[in-house]
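[step 3/7] fold_predict: job queued, chain A
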Amino acid sequence: MPIRKIIHSDKTLLGQAAARDGANRIRDAIAGRGEANIILATGASQFEMLQALVREEIAWERVTVFHLDEYAGLPVTHPASFRRYLWERFHRLLPVPLQAFHYVAADRDPLQECARLGALIRTHPIDVCFAGVGENAHLAFNDPPADFQTEEPYLVVELDEACRRQQLGEGWFPALDDVPRRAISMSVRQIMKSRSILITAPDLRKAKAVRDALCEPVTPAVPASILQRHPDVAFFLDTGSASLLQPEP
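[step 4/7] structure written:
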């Protein structure tokens, strides 16, 4: 099945479209087996999608959430903490408690945390993965060249300079030296096990990464290119991030 591409000029409409698509899949999973498991990402690309997702009518008490990635060693009180991001922009805004939210606890031993989360997600088949694509085409914090082979659900990864500069450019840190060099990330193969993957990737600065992910050969040098091998992927783009794509006939 070819990758679906949904393009809106307005970020709010883009986020609403991604949230609506994901919400329908969550409701279908709950209707089918009584519960749903999802993955949530963070970053500037997810603002509008999460804002819309919390407003969807979903039986959240039947939903388990897994956290995609987090900086190793960063306290939850730090403004750039992804745990803090997801609490403030999603978790605390829900009308009812979730069945469970499995955050990446960055202040624990990274290898032990990978093992803990890995054991949990192995028993929770993922219905929907909400994610983005980095300026270097990373998927989660799997920077190029990404590991396409490991079966471990979570990894400790080294962040490349392009990734760290993106975090600086988005305003999460005051200087490049303040951006952590390591993170705990969900692995590529674990992401690919999701039944559906919904990528929200607005902004002109993502245009090359989007084009390479969708149009170039699958390669660890373009981590998001692996999505070409998944049977159910949608890219939610704005006119900037879609600007290097050839018009479809």
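[step 5/7] annotate
The longest strand covers residues 233-238.
The chain has a mean pLDDT of 96.
exit 0
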